[in-house]
């Protein structure tokens, strides 16, 4: 199971709230989740096999894990939502309908504004606030706007000439701006300003204003009005205490930098905040020697490199002062063609985000403290155990996948210096004995088979075929040849691979077989398999490579079966493309109808040449010329 390969990384995760991101072999984010305690939540996936088909599919595909720590689980929830919308991971199926936590929209573009629920923030002149967690808080806040301030909830075009107010005015939930003799525009604008203060989080200012109005009403002996102002003040203070920090409109558009230096690397972490939301995180990493002149010099260099390919926002928050900040500001402003400000926040939400970026940078530094140590130990262990002349820096692995000989396919994965080189993966269709074909890269479309291929039940012959195809191409291209070839299987598969290598004059290459159950390494020159210690880094590396080859082969095999099951004879007729396929099926109803059609039936539908091709394919007779 792929998730097991991340067990050691999971054990080092922080016991803090945050967001975790799973990625597949192609580097795509496939799942984003939140956690109250990152280590405990991610660790639970190690024993999640069998809980649901979705989870099983996720666990089979996961190859990489990334985490972002936050100050609270509520902030993790908001950040999770932002990242899901930004990256659209396919295993977050609950949010596939693009549902998000709601924002509130104060329609300042209207003469008499309203408060509405919005799922997306737009640049349309209106005021947006949120997101509101939970979503019910947004509805309650709208209710406050009606009850406390009397904002309208209708969709009418307000002219002030309505004959009488509606029921909302009678139950004291609207000031009735539709009747100018009841509510003057100035009075309604005061209510709009109160709502704006509430949505912008300026609760202290609003509460002080409400208190002043309460005292003025009490002094004038308007006690009912004074009581209303008092109740409004208390509710406003309660709502203000629940405002979110991680996603607040007051933060606007900005980039936030954090810096950390470790014994082996220096890391800059950039949080990109757009419309008050953290929408992306970018990691810049260099050698520890890069920070020899101090964190300020490192940040200054990062600013120059990062904004060569990114548009600078209006404000950039830094963890430390940099030298010649005014020069850097001028350069950034010239690139953005507007004023760009560099700040070093000392307190408040801005400083908190800088500290958060710094903590995430420290996580990357700790994870990279010894990036090559374990890989070197694994490669050196393989060199010693297998008697190799040097470190096996390039390792290639083959795996065969079939279902009772049906749709037999093979995969090749490559590992360089202990890391999987996904750009060099190859996959093969295995046909009859002696057939030759070419490897196809992942990005190339696979042709549909017109009918099920003959069953290929000889696993050894399949291994010999793909090894021959692979290395015959390498001989023509002049390499690169692997330092070690790993065969997924035992003695039989290994002998078949060596037979193919000998026919190409490459018998000097070192190949080993790795059986799944016993986890014993079979070699050509020894009758007894090599038994590695179960905790050996060398064995873990071989298992990782073998499991990756198996995953890649199984994925391709499922695709091949799907293409076979849903294919059609019409797919492989020369000259019959998607448009003519639709014409044929529309006219004759089914494949059987096309098969029964005569030339006189076909010509009016697809023309003479295509009709001849269809008749030839179904052996209806020799086409006339």
Amino- and carboxy-terminal Cα gap: 60 Å
User: How many independent structural domains?
Assistant: 5
Question: Could you say which overall geometry the principal axes of the C-alpha atoms support?
Answer: extended
- Tell me the β content: 15-25%
CATH superfamily of the largest domain: UvrC, RNAse H endonuclease domain
Q: What oligomeric state do the depicted chains represent?
A: single chain
Q: List low-confidence stretches.
A: 93-100, 242-247, 434-456, 620-625
- Broad CATH class of the largest domain: Alpha Beta
> Can you give the mean pLDDT?
78
Helix fraction?
A: 40-55%
CA-based gyration radius: 33 Å
CATH topology name of the largest domain, in short, is Nucleotidyltransferase, domain 5
Number of helices: 20
Describe the structure.
With 625 residues, this protein is α+β, with helices and mostly antiparallel strands. The protein folds into five domains: 2-95, GIY-YIG endonuclease; 103-201, no CATH class; 252-367, Nucleotidyltransferase, domain 5 (2-Layer Sandwich), CATH 3.30.420.10; 377-566, Nucleotidyltransferase, domain 5, CATH 3.30.420; 569-617, 5' to 3' exonuclease, C-terminal subdomain (DNA polymerase, domain 1). Helix content is 41%, strand content 16%. Strands 12, 13, 14, 15, 16, 17 and 18 form a seven-stranded mixed β-sheet that branches. It has a five-stranded mixed β-sheet with strand order 9-8-7-10-11. A hairpin with a 5-residue loop joins strand 1 (18-23) and strand 2 (29-35). Helix 8 runs antiparallel to helix 9 and helix 19 (599-606) crosses helix 20. The chain is extended, with a radius of gyration of 33 Å. Residues 93-100, 242-247, 434-456 and 620-625 have low confidence and may be disordered.
């Amino acid at each position: 199971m792929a998730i097991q390969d991340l067990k050691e990384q999971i054990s080092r995760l922080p016991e803090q709230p945050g967001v975790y991101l799973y990625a597949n072999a192609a580097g795509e984010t496939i799942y984003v989740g939140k956690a109250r305690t990152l280590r405990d939540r991610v660790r639970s996936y190690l024993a999640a096999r069998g809980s649901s088909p979705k989870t099983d599919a996720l666990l089979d595909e996961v190859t990489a894990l990334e985490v972002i720590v936050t100050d609270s689980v509520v902030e993790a929830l908001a950040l999770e939502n932002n990242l899901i919308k930004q990256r659209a991971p396919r295993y977050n199926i609950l949010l596939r309908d693009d549902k998000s936590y709601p924002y509130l929209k104060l329609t300042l573009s209207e003469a008499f504004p309203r408060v509405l629920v919005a799922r997306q923030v737009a640049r349309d002149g209106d005021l947006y606030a949120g997101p509101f967690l939970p979503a019910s808080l947004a509805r309650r806040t709208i209710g406050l706007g009606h009850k406390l301030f009397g904002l309208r909830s209708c969709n009418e075009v307000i002219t002030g000439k309505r004959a009488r107010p509606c029921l909302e005015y009678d139950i004291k939930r609207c000031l009735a701006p539709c009747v100018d003799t009841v509510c003057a525009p100035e009075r309604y604008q005061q209510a709009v300003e109160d709502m704006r203060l509430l949505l912008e989080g300026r609760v202290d200012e609003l509460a002080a204003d409400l208190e002043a109005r309460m005292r003025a009403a009490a002094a004038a002996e308007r006690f009912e009005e004074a009581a209303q102002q008092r109740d409004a003040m208390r509710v406003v203070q309660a709502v203000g205490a629940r405002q979110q920090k991680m996603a607040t409109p007051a933060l606007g558009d900005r980039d936030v930098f954090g810096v950390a230096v470790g014994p082996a690397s220096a890391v800059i972490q950039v949080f990109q905040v757009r419309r008050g939301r953290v929408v992306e995180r970018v990691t810049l990493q260099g050698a520890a020697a890069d920070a020899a002149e101090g964190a300020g010099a490192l940040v200054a260099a990062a600013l120059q490199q990062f904004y060569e390919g990114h548009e600078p926002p209006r404000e950039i928050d830094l963890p430390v002062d940099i030298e010649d900040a005014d020069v850097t500001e001028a350069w950034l402003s010239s690139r953005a063609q507007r004023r760009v400000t560099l700040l070093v926040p000392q307190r408040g939400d801005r400083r908190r985000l800088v500290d958060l970026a710094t903590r995430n940078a420290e996580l990357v530094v700790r994870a990279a403290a010894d990036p090559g140590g374990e890989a070197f130990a694994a490669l050196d262990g393989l060199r010693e155990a297998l008697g190799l002349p040097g470190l096996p820096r390039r390792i290639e692995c083959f795996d065969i996948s079939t279902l009772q000989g049906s749709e037999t396919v093979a995969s090749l994965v490559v590992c360089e210096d202990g890391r999987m080189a996904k750009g060099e993966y190859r996959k093969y269709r295995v046909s009859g004995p002696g057939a030759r074909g070419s490897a196809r890269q992942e990005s190339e479309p696979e042709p549909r088979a017109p009918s099920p291929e003959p069953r290929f039940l000889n696993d050894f012959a399949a291994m010999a075929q793909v090894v021959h195809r692979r290395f015959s191409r390498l001989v023509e291209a002049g390499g690169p040849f692997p330092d070690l070839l790993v065969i997924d299987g035992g003695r039989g598969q290994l002998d078949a691979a060596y037979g193919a290598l000998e026919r190409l004059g490459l018998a000097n290459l070192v190949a080993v077989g790795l059986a799944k159950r016993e986890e014993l390494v079979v070699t050509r020159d020894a009758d007894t398999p090599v038994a590695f210690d179960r905790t050996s880094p060398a064995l873990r590396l071989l298992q990782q490579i073998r499991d990756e080859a198996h995953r890649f082969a199984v994925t391709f095999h499922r695709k091949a079966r799907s293409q076979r099951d849903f294919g059609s004879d019409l797919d492989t007729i020369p000259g019959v493309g998607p448009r003519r396929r639709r014409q044929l099926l529309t006219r004759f109803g089914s494949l059987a109808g096309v098969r029964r059609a005569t030339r006189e039936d076909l010509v009016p539908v697809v023309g003479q040449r295509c009709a001849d091709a269809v008749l030839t394919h179904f052996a209806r007779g020799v086409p006339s010329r």
